[in-house]
Amino acid sequence: MISKFALCLGAGLFALAAATAAQAQEPMKIGVVSVLTGPGAALGQQLRDGFQLAVDKNGGKLGGVPVQITVIDDELKPDVAVGKVRGFVEGGKVDFVVGPIFSNILGAIAKPVLDSGAILISPNAGPSTMAGKACHENFFVTSYQNDQVHEVLGKYAQDQGFKRAYIIAPNYQAGKDSLAGFKNHYKGEIVDEVYAPLTSMDFASDLAKIASTKPDVVFAFLPGGLGVNFVKQWSQAGLQGKIPFLSAFTVDESTLPAQQDAAVGLFGGMTWAPNMDNPQSKAFVAAYEAAYKIVPGSYAMQAYDAAMLIDSAVKAAGGAGDKAKVRAELKKANFTSLRGKFKFNTNGYPIQDFYLVKVAKRPDGKFQTEIAQKVFTDYADPHAKDCALK
Amino acid sequence: MTTSLLIVQILNGLQLGILLFLVAAGLTLVFGVMDFINLAHGVQYMLGAYLAVTFVALTGSFVLGLVLALAAALVIGLALEFLVFRHLYERDHLDQVLATFGLILLLNQGVKIVWGAAPLSVPVPEFLTGSVRLMDGILYPTYRFALIGSGLAVAGLLWFIVEKTRTGMLLRAGASNASMVSALGVDIRKLFMIVFAFGTMLAGFAGAMAAPILSVEPGMGDSILILAFVVIVVGGIGSIRGAFVGALIVGLVDTLGRSFMNDLLRLFMSAPSARATGAALSSMLIYLVMAMVLFVRPEGLLPAKGRS
Predict the structure, then answer these.
(1) Residue A327: its pLDDT value, please?
(2) Residue A1: what pLDDT?
(3) Which residue of A has its CA nearest to B227?
(4) Cβ pair B119:A195 closer than 8 A
């Protein structure tokens, strides 16, 4: 009898101990919201893979706590994104939501995520609204404020003394914001300001106009397939190397595999490039290429930084349970960014350096952007003054 | 606006028109002869481009890659005909639209699984790189000339087949009155299959020829499909000549509108408002043309005979 009792007691205690251990190791729930179908999927995959790479590197844990990642495809449709994300955050306690790529999706999912009490970290989209009046204590951005990337090229064009600029963007809100951002710092003459239809395939007529108006510089914001078409046709029209080509989100690691030699020598603006000279970035690029066989772009880099940010904050706060503590630690940005320097402004957006980057062909035949020169140092967005957070 | 710019823009318009013609020719045949609405025609264009990417990379030769891509596009087209379209000929238009729209979703996702989501490209063949000098200060890419030339050659070939051969005669008869042709003892199924295979190959050819100048990506066929429908509505359904004329009109109107609308409006507007109006107006210009044609000649400019 006694031995049986002891056995039961032993088993009970063991079960109890196991339960407490499980409780301590209860996984952190993280939702990764990204676009995985449709034209933006190449960017969305980098976000998902960059985040996963950081988690894998830490042995499936962030800040010492195991993580349970749910990947949500927003399909680049705000209504779909809201439905899926709301279902996810209402389905159980969620600690972090990381994503998305596009600002219109962020606008749609921000409220349900923040209302649920989860912390939202955007590894790409950085709209001006959420940097200013609509800022939130649980919202952080590991990329940039959208306008800043376009401003890099405007500032560079101004510094170079280019007199006449031809600027082109798609005919939608982000395109208009882009050209406005370029003109914030560029004060020369605008030869022509073109808004191309979002469905444009052939830019031959625009290129013929560029060839005939002979501007000193061309600035383009033509993301994804638009940029692939434009850059290929730019080179076929014999303009490559003749007119300086500045761009935002037009030549990057997501489009270079298609643009190849046609893009060599063209300029973009970014906070980082795969040839960034620091040990953590070199290790990241090597690991990403080994795992996914492509050169990582800023989308992967920013998602990786988002994971490392969570890692640092959860570690310092001793778990993800106490939101106030985690938030305080997140604000410190006490992690090693792949960019080197990184700190948060009062509105949860970064203060960081921006570079002019130039497309180059690597010795192994792959293409990547490389840092050409620094354009802004410790650059903060101007919207922070409208944000009530301190 | 200078004369040289105008000449280059007219060439650009022609080249867009030729590309549209290659897609629209197949669409108008299938629609006209078989009374079958094939929304999946655009994805066949996309498949042509993707197959060109693969085969040009495999063989290292553009011409060889193009031939193999055409053959593969034909095989895929026939397989689709056998598996899907054949069962839809008797159904009404709504069923056809639903089923072929489903194919668009399926194949767009399919190419993403096989080739990845990132845009791909085909290098311009070595012997067609560079530009041709037309006159002082006017350069035009050689490859675009080749595209115009090959499109004109296909148009000539089609004209010959449709106007001068027995199959062409049956095609024309089928476009006017399919049930009568069938009643006269012609194997209409076989005719349909030939038409369909040919249309698929034309779309595949257009995709493969476009691959060196456009980015090859999932969904690339969707925007061209809409334009192709505009072309066949303007030209007249079922008519190859109509498709040719319609395609050139749409190509020229779109290109010239996009490049000169701003300058035109600036004559009597301030620059910013001309820019905003110009961008809006030039992107709807072809639809205005279509509306006008529908108003004046509801059956299109050059409709197939016996159709009204």
Answers:
(1) 95
(2) 45
(3) A199
(4) no
Query: Could you say which of A195, A201, A204 has the minimum Cβ distance to residue B279?
Result: A195
Compare CB distances from A204 to B12, B120, B224 and report the shortest one's residue: B12
Please give the residue of chain A at the shortest CA–CA distance from B4: A212
3-state secondary structure chain A: CHHHHHHHHHHHHHHHHHHHHHHHCCCEEEEEEECCCCCCHHHHHHHHHHHHHHHHHCCCEECCEEEEEEEEECCCCHHHHHHHHHHHHHCCCCCEEECCCCHHHHHHHHHHHHHCCCEEEECCCCCHHHHCCCCCCCEEECCCCHHHHHHHHHHHHHHCCCCEEEEEEECCHHHHHHHHHHHHHCCCEEEEEEEECCCCCCCHHHHHHHHHHCCCEEEECCCCHHHHHHHHHHHHCCCCCCCCEEECCCCCCCCHHHHHHHHCCCEEEECCCCCCCCHHHHHHHHHHHHHHCCCCCHHHHHHHHHHHHHHHHHHHHCCCCCHHHHHHHHHHCCCCECCECCEECCCCCEEEEEEEEEEEECCCCCEEEEEEEEEEEEECCHHHHHCCCC
Nearest to B215 among A44, A228, A236 (CB): A228
Sequence-separated (6 or more) residues with CB below 8 Å from residue B284: none
- Give the residue on A whose Cα is nearest the Cα of B108: A38
Residue A6 makes CB contacts below 8 A (sequence gap 6+) with none
Rounded CA-CA distance A271/A248 in Å is: 12
High-pLDDT (> 90) share of chain B, %: 46
CA distance B246 to chain A (A): 19
Low-confidence ranges of chain A (pLDDT < 70): 1-25
In 3-state terms, what secondary structure has residue B131? strand
CB contact under 8 A, A204 and B255: yes
Give the CATH fold of the A23-144+276-351 domain.
Rossmann fold (3.40.50)
Q: How many CB atoms lie within 10 A of CB B292?
A: 11
Residue A253 falls in which region: left (phi positive, over 0), alpha (psi -120 to 50) or beta: alpha
Residue A10: the pLDDT is 54
**Interatomic CA distance for residues B271 and B5, integer angstroms:** 21
A236–B143 CB contact, under 8 Å: yes
Identity of the residue in A209, A212, A254 whose CB atom sits nearest the CB atom of B118:
A254
Top residue of A101, A195, A199, A205 to mutate, by most chain B CBs within 10 Å, is: A205
ipTM, two decimals, is 0.74
Q: Does domain A147-270 have CATH number 3.40.50.2300?
A: yes
- Beta strands at A65-73 and A96-98: parallel, antiparallel or unpaired: unpaired
Surface of B (132-151) touching A: CB under 8 A: 139, 141, 143-144
Structural element, H or E, at residue B141: strand B138-141
Q: How far is B70 from chain A (nearest CA, A)?
A: 22
Q: Using one digit for the tens of pLDDT, what is the confidence trace for B192-223?
A: 888 888 889 999 999 999 999 888 988 889 88
Q: Cα–Cα distance between A43 and A300 in angstroms, integer?
A: 8
Q: Give me the residues of A, 161-180, that contact B with CB < 8 A.
A: 171
User: Residue A173 and residue A150: Cα distance in Å, rounded?
Assistant: 14
Chain A residue at shortest CA distance from B115: A42
**Residues of chain A contacting residue B259, judged by C-beta atoms under 8 Å apart:** 205-206, 208-209
Where in chain A do CATH 3.40.50.2300 domains reside?
23-144+276-351, 147-270
Task: List beta partners, residue A268.
Answer: A357
